[in-house]
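Ops channel
N.P.: pipeline sanity check, posting one input/output pair.
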């Protein structure tokens, strides 16, 4: 049975933002992540500010030497990486059907 619409408090976060977050965490650099994702650094920064606003906390410690994850950021990375991996598997499944 479908979940009534009122059960959803708000729409889920953007999958694209989770992909961005994972790439930043792995590169330990906003600039390197922006290059690998083919997005501008200002757009990447805005996306991460939006994700941090949605989470209600900072996810990164920013410095002149790059970024590191906060404790909450490390927890989110674990789940975000899993979600991205699962989405990649779904995409592979779809490709194999065609």
């Amino acid at each position: 049975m479908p979940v009534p619409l009122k059960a959803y408090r708000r729409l889920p976060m953007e999958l694209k933002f989770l992909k961005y977050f994972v790439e930043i965490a792995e590169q330990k650099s906003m600039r390197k992540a922006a290059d690998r994702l083919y997005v501008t650094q200002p757009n990447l920064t805005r996306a991460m500010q939006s994700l941090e606003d949605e989470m209600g906390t900072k996810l990164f410690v920013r410095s002149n030497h790059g970024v590191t994850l906060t404790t909450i950021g490390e927890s989110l990375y674990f789940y975000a990486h899993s979600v991205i991996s699962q989405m990649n598997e779904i995409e592979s499944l779809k490709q194999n059907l065609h």
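N.P.: looks fine end to end. The chain is about 65% helix and 10% strand.
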